[in-house]
Amino acid sequence: MNVDEVFEWRGRRIAWGRRGEGPPVVLCHGTPWSSRLWSPFADALARDFTVHLWDMPGYGASSKDPEHPVDLGVQGEAFAALLDHWGLDRPRVIAHDYGGAVALRAALLHGAGYSALCLVDVVALRPWGSPFFTLVKENAEVFALLPDAVHEGALRAYISGAGHRGLRDDDLDTLAAPWLGGEGKAAFYRQIAQADERFTEQVEPRLADLSFPVHIVWGTEDTWIPVDRAHRLHAAIPHSTLSLVPGAGHLIQLDAPVALADELRRWLSPRPPAG
């Protein structure tokens, strides 16, 4: 599913796409990913739902102007504005990684309304950030000066570490592509440099205020955001539900695509109560 539409917002170009017919579903990606990670799932769900994909500003096919902040605060505002632009009435939202913090901030701080929210291996609770992520954050200006070939090698190794079963070459190529070249390399280090736990600290005390159903899905072998965060998040959100996916790492979409697709389909199409 392509993101070939554009939403102009505060000087940024936000790439998005829509496909299918039925109740609205919105898919949110994280970092250093883009909507491409969700695209096969969007294609499958479009048989029964109107599926919306988007690339956060600074990611994927969206604009990467170095003058535009790309922190989680901006992304939450951008998502709320995009939902308003689409005119959606309480869609169901599925979010992965950073997309979890973005969706939570949009709902808790910017008035976005959902009928339900599914959080998949998300950034939501402190602490977060892998050792490499932290190293880059503290030395982003130095890393941005790396020769392109060295940057590509480090980038591919970093992305590979998010999977548990090992990534296919074509999947790795797809995930790395937006961050190559001069613009992509600068954007990659810029978004890490602007990462700040204060953006999740602001919403953590308000998680209990969520009034819509929340379902949490987590890969048991996630080394980027360990599974203990899933249990903590489940405890912090009253009436939430939790499903663990064995043998899946942070890139659960690639480690366990069938299990994740089945989980999302069950969540989106709940069976009526027996009797």
TrEMBL record:
Pfam families: Abhydrolase_1. The keyword Hydrolase applies. Residues 23-257 form the AB hydrolase-1 domain. The keyword Hydrolase applies. InterPro entries: AB_hydrolase_1, AB_hydrolase_fold, AB_hydrolase_sf. Keywords: Hydrolase. GO terms for molecular function: hydrolase activity. This is Alpha/beta hydrolase. It comes from Nocardiopsis lambiniae.
